[in-house]
Amino acid sequence: MSKNKIVFWRICICLLICAVALLCEHVFVLPPWVSITLFVLAYIVVAYDIVLDAFYDIIHGQVFGENLLMTIATVGAFFIEEFIEAVAVMLLYQIGEAFQRYALGKSRNSIAALVSIRPETATIVRDGEQVEVHPAEIEIGQNFLVKPGERIALDGIVVEGSCTIDTSTITGESVPVFVQKGDKVISGCICLDGTLTVQSTSDYDNCTVAQILDMVENATFNKAPAEKFITKFSRYYTPVVVILAVLIAIVPPLFLQNWAVWIKRAMMFLFVSCPCALVISIPLGFFGGIAACSKKGILIKGSNYLEMLSKINLFAFDKTGTLTKGKFDIVNVYPQENKQQVLKLAAIAEQYSTHPIAQCILASTAPQCSATVQEIAGKGIVAKTADITILCGNASLMTENQVEFEQSSSKTVVYVAENGKFVGYVELADQLKEDSITAIAKLHKMGANTAMLTGDNDHIAKEIATQLGIGKTYSQLLPQEKATIVQNLKTQGNKVAFVGDGINDAPVLATADVGIAMGAMGSDIAIQTADIVLMQDNPTALSTAVNISKKTLKVVKQNIVISLVIKFAVLILSAIGLLDTIAFGLVIAILADVGVCVVAILNSMRTMLPPRK
Amino acid sequence: MRYVLKMVNLDCANCAARMERFISKIPQVDKVSVSFLSQKMILETPEETFEETLKEINEICRIIHRDTYVLGK
Fold this sequence. Notes:
The complex is a heterodimer.
Chain A: H1 3-27, H2 32-59, H3 66-79, H4 83-114, E1 122-126, E2 129-133, E3 143-146, E4 156-160, E5 163-166, H5 168-171, E6 177-179, E7 184-185, E8 190-191, E9 196-200, H6 208-218, H7 225-256, H8 259-271, H9 276-295, E10 298-300, H10 303-309, E11 314-318, H11 319-323, E12 324-334, H12 339-350, H13 356-364, E13 372-376, E14 380-384, E15 389-393, H14 395-400, E16 412-418, E17 421-432, H15 436-445, E18 449-453, H16 458-468, E19 472-474, H17 479-491, E20 496-500, H18 506-511, E21 514-518, H19 524-529, E22 532-534, H20 541-576, H21 585-605
Parallel strand pairs in A: 11-18, 11-20, 18-19, 20-21, 21-22
Antiparallel strand pairs in A: 1-2, 3-9, 4-7, 4-9, 5-6, 5-8, 10-22, 12-17, 13-14, 14-15, 15-16, 16-17
Helix pairs in contact in A: 1-2, 1-4, 2-3, 2-4, 3-4, 3-8, 4-9, 4-21, 7-8, 7-9, 8-20, 9-20, 9-21, 10-20, 12-13, 20-21
Chain B: E1 2-8, H1 13-23, E2 31-35, E3 40-44, H2 50-64, E4 69-70
Antiparallel strand pairs in B: 1-3, 1-4, 2-3
Helix pairs in contact in B: 1-2
């Protein structure tokens, strides 16, 4: 039976006994000892664990625990013959605690549900039969089946079958992706309409899902300044409150004689002092924010980064792969009428190269024959086939070989010559991502500045920057120079986030106040170096993350203010004695404590609601 | 070494905060975080003395709250 169920029955029994006791006292007018015995019984039923805890605390020298205070106050009430009050205080305390447990359990579960994307079973074929096993039993390189509706258990490569998969739990991207033989798939994605045979490339403990869960769960390890403030605060708070309570109990009675009243006030003062609401709701708020982010495919490695993100006023971007696709497209071939021939020759020359430009040319045209190639670093390629020599590269390659050629105005261009005679050129350009412009505009709208840091030359950088409307541009940078610039921006008083693809950016990611890696599906390096990881390749996720972080911080600040204000109000009321004019002063004190706590918990849950558009 | 340990019967946020404070005072504990929400303790401590440290931690937990303890790895 759960703790709350037990408490529920204890409360019921206690109420029943109280009712009987009141009947005995007022209706049947039995001698007082009967009802007193019944009240004591009711008290024991509802409060035995608190009293036991109180004794346990005394033995271990914990003098100022809640339990001990409750016990002293209620036993005191028995001695001044306020039986109902004693029982009622314990009753309300138990009800409040139960409600608090319920609310917390609920919120904890809903956060857990947000991140419960870990598959618990996988199907493998053993001796020609399909067997269901736990994914931990599958070794790297082993094949497993994924049926429609199932989650992919481990990262892997599709070896058979094709289907559309829902990657939204991992990337936050709601459009399903089509995969077929040879494609990489990520654990945690759901197979929608077909059966896949997947060869695993990771084991259970190291697959993407495991890494994500690990990160979300351990995010609380890196505490945000707001959390640290509370820890510090509660360290000084408790002793101060205890000293004040002692003063309230001792000083006024010296002049006013009224010991009982002041001791009661001191007790009340101690009750309302419990800093629970603060201590619970702040990490809960951050946890909710982190979970909300992870649902959108944004992984945050610690509460501190979430808090920092809300304060960033300058977003510095890497260009290639972050704002642009990092993939070249052919934008023009000269001369148009001889297009096929130019591309054909270029493809033969570039067929063994892994350079992005070569990849792009090869994607458009397949090479028709083999060739012996010589790569000239920084210039291009000289390729020899059975009957011709092809020169394929930049302007200096042409000049060096005394080829007369027509200059292109484009910045990324490949000139092609056959047997020393100019044939034509191919112009290429890196394409902007579809939503880069929106993403930058959204950040500007939030009041943040933007900058672009790139290794490319001035011309290209300026062109891209104008298209994007980005604030400042720094070009022709080496990776360590990027770090220096970010450092400078920081010393100018900016809070700088750097957004990169996480591969060559380790130094600058570390230098920035917040390092954000993007498009990290399956890339371990990015996950390790960055503070925040955007799983999808989509820069608009950035503004979503900033929105969530701002909302979280707002909720956390509200919680701090609500609980402190109410706490201080009740503390003052109890100290000046306004609460003991109310019949159940202690009851009010408990309600203030538990009530604030529940309000703060509910407020924290708001961090998980989708952000307002 | 960083350990992630499961906590049992940790049902008071203030207790978690106090456990964290006292455990961080153990000399061989480099860093500790007690998460009331995930009911976990993340602990950075040398591997060699882990068992002793765990014993000490459990003592502290039990003093702060009667039935809270830490499961081994």
